[in-house]
Amino acid sequence: MTGAKPERRHSFFPDFDTWFGREFPGLPGWRPATAAHAIPVEVSTGDDGVYTLRAELPGMDPDDITLTVDDNLVTVSAEQRESTEDKDHSEFRYGAFRRTVRLPDTIPADDVDASYADGILTVRIPMPTQDTRTARTIRVKRRAADDKEDRS
């Protein structure tokens, strides 16, 4: 097997991102300061073909939430800034929050509806009806005698 050799570090202090990146199974709750918090979400599909995405964003101002729709991806991002008051103890999460959800089809951007209440962002996406049949007939074309088949 050929390939590039891994880079050797000559430092006594290896890159902590390499040691404790997201894939590292230990140290629960530890993450690099530059990484965004994941937003807890739930997605459901109604009988009417409407996808409903609910994202848990407690304590956010709706003006600080950004919702982006691109092809079949819905991305929710927000930022919670820490207050300047002195605290004796805090378990709140501050910083950037982000979550992208892939839906099975292209999202019609004009019909997406988003609302925020009681710490929950609710996004309703009406999806176009799809032809769910899997069986179909494919026409077989006759190849002309002078056409050469490419066998490479």
Percent helix range: under 10%
Low-confidence blocks of residues:
5-28
Which structural category do the helix and sheet elements fall into?
A: mainly beta
**Ends distance:** 26 Å
Query: What is the multimeric organization of the chains shown?
Result: single chain
Main sheet? 4 strands, mixed
List how many beta strands DSSP finds.
8
Proportion of beta-strand residues:
25-35%
Q: Report the principal-axis shape.
A: elongated
Q: Name the average pLDDT.
A: 75
The H-and-E topology, N to C, reads as HEEEEEEEE
| Biggest sheet strand line-up | 1-6-5-4
| Count, helices | 1
Q: Care to give the gist of this entry?
A:
By secondary structure, the chain is mostly beta strands. The protein is 3% helix and 32% strand. The two termini are 26 Å apart.
Describe the structure.
With 152 residues, the protein is mostly beta strands. The chain is 3% helix and 32% strand. A four-stranded mixed β-sheet has the order 1-6-5-4, with no helix packed on it. Strands 2-3-8-7 form a four-stranded antiparallel β-sheet, with no helix packed on it. It is elongated. The two termini are 26 Å apart. Residues 5-28 have low confidence and may be disordered.
